Structures are given as structure tokens and as C-alpha cells.
């Protein structure tokens, strides 16, 4: 089991980062790989989940252990694979997701890509008792009903290239073309001034969860 890898970000793709560690390039799938852009060519630590199946071996990466722990809990839910679990942990904070499970907030859970009412009910049924083990995560995050603060709501100018990259990343998380286009239209309607791919993705994910 690979717990974490330290190395430099060699390059970034729509659904993953390539981490150069000891002369080996590790392809690590991430919900928001562009969040590492400012750290490109710098040494970083990425917490990983090593996923093995008959025809493939994958590494999924997270910036902290809390996200990875929640990701692993979600994998225990019948019908949720790594891609679905990654989309959930990327779109919402661990504290929000844990609160939604504890409060049996089906409406919140169904806002995640690929999560219908039955799957949301299964998440609650399977994890309501298990997430108590992750209660420490909630101490540093807002509750489900909390809205982004003023600083997080500040908007930046959207240049064409960051916008395209953000659209690709959102599709990689499981959002449809129609959903991506709809959220981009909302950003434009807000008069969004998004300066980077990472900021566009973060704001888009906020909108997915609050609308």
C-alpha cells in the first residue's frame, strides 16, 4: 500500500497529475488537478489510495488525509466506484459530506454527479455509523447548509484557456456537457472574473452544490 508520495509536479492533465519521485513519473488521478498548478515543479506530498483491479492499477491522490479517508469510506458503499467517490470528495468538503450523511440530507447528496436518490439513501444507510470515525474532520469545516464566505465568493476574470481546462476537468468528474455549459453560463451571468483554472473549478463546484 502506498500511503503518500513526495516529489515534484512534472505536469498536469485534465484528470490527473504526474508526480516525479525518484526519477519515476507517477500518474495520480485527482478531482481537481489544477489545484496543484501553483506548486508545479515544486516538491509536494500527495496522499494516495492504491486501487487494484484485474485489468488495471490506479493511484488516486489527495492533498490531505481527511479527503482520502472519506474517499475510502465511500468506496465501501455498494455501487460507488473510485470515479464516483472522487467526484464526491472533490465537489464537497469532507465536513459537508459527513454532515449530510449524519443529517440524512438526501437533497444535498443528490447534487453530486451520478448520485441519484437511491444511491444517496444507500450512502446514508451504509455510512451513517461509520462516519463517526471521521468526526474530527468536521472541526475545521463549515456545515452543509453553510454558504461560501465573501472571500471565497470573490470572482476573477475567465481567460479562454483556463475556462477550457476547467470544462475538461468538470467533465472528468462526471458532469455532463449540458451541466458544464449551464454552470459556465451562471459564472458569466455573475460577471465572473476568474483568473485561473483552479478558481473556475472551485466556484463551479460551489454552484453545483448550492443550486
From the structure above, extract its key features:
OB fold (Dihydrolipoamide Acetyltransferase, E2P), 5-stranded mixed β-barrel, 211 residues, globular, alpha+beta, Helicase, Ruva Protein, domain 3, DNA polymerase, domain 1, 18% strand, 9 helices
Q: Strand order across the biggest sheet?
A: 1-2-3-5-4
Largest sheet: 5 strands, mixed, barrel
Distance between the termini: 39 Å
Helix-strand topology string: EEEEEHHHHHHHHH
Tally of DSSP β-strands: 5
Give the radius of gyration: 17 Å
CATH superfamily of the largest domain: 5' to 3' exonuclease, C-terminal subdomain
Please tell me what the overall shape is: globular
- Give the percentage of residues in beta strands: 15-25%
Number of helices, counting only DSSP H or I runs of 4 residues or more: 9
Structure at a glance:
The chain is an alpha+beta fold.
Model description:
The chain is an alpha+beta fold and 211 residues long. It contains nine helices and five strands, in the order βββββααααααααα. The chain folds into three domains: 4-62, OB fold (Dihydrolipoamide Acetyltransferase, E2P) (Beta Barrel), CATH 2.40.50; 66-140, DNA polymerase, domain 1, CATH 1.10.150.20; 150-210, Helicase, Ruva Protein, domain 3 (Orthogonal Bundle), CATH 1.10.8. It has helices at 65-75, 82-91, 94-102, 106-109, 117-127, 150-153, 160-172, 177-189, 197-210, and strands spanning 4-12, 16-21, 24-29, 43-53, 56-62. β1 (4-12) and β2 (16-21) form a beta hairpin. α1 crosses α2 and α8 crosses α9 (197-210). It is globular. Residues 139-159 have low confidence and may be disordered.
Amino acid at each position: 500500500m502506498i500511503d503518500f508520495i513526495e516529489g515534484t509536479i512534472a505536469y498536469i492533465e485534465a484528470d490527473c497529475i504526474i508526480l516525479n519521485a525518484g526519477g519515476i513519473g507517477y500518474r495520480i488521478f485527482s478531482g481537481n488537478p489544477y489545484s496543484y498548478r501553483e506548486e508545479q515543479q515544486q516538491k509536494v506530498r500527495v496522499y494516495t489510495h492504491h486501487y487494484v483491479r484485474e485489468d488495471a492499477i490506479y493511484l488516486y491522490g489527495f492533498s490531505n488525509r481527511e479527503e482520502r479517508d472519506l474517499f475510502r469510506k465511500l468506496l465501501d458503499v455498494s455501487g460507488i466506484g473510485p470515479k464516483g467517490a472522487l467526484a464526491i470528495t472533490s465537489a464537497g468538503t469532507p465536513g459537508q459530506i459527513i454532515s449530510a450523511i449524519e443529517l440524512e440530507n438526501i437533497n444535498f447528496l443528490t447534487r453530486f454527479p451520478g448520485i441519484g436518490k437511491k444511491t444517496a439513501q444507500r450512502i446514508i444507510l451504509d455510512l451513517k455509523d461509520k462516519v463517526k470515525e471521521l468526526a474530527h474532520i468536521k472541526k475545521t469545516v463549515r456545515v452543509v447548509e453553510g454558504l461560501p464566505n465573501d472571500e471565497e465568493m470573490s470572482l476573477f476574470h475567465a481567460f479562454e484557456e483556463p475556462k477550457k481546462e476547467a470544462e475538461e476537468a468538470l467533465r472528468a468528474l462526471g458532469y455532463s456537457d449540458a451541466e458544464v455549459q449551464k454552470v459556465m453560463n451562471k459564472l458569466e451571468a455573475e460577471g465572473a472574473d476568474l483568473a485561473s483554472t483552479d478558481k473556475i473549478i472551485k466556484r463551479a463546484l460551489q454552484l453545483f452544490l448550492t443550486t
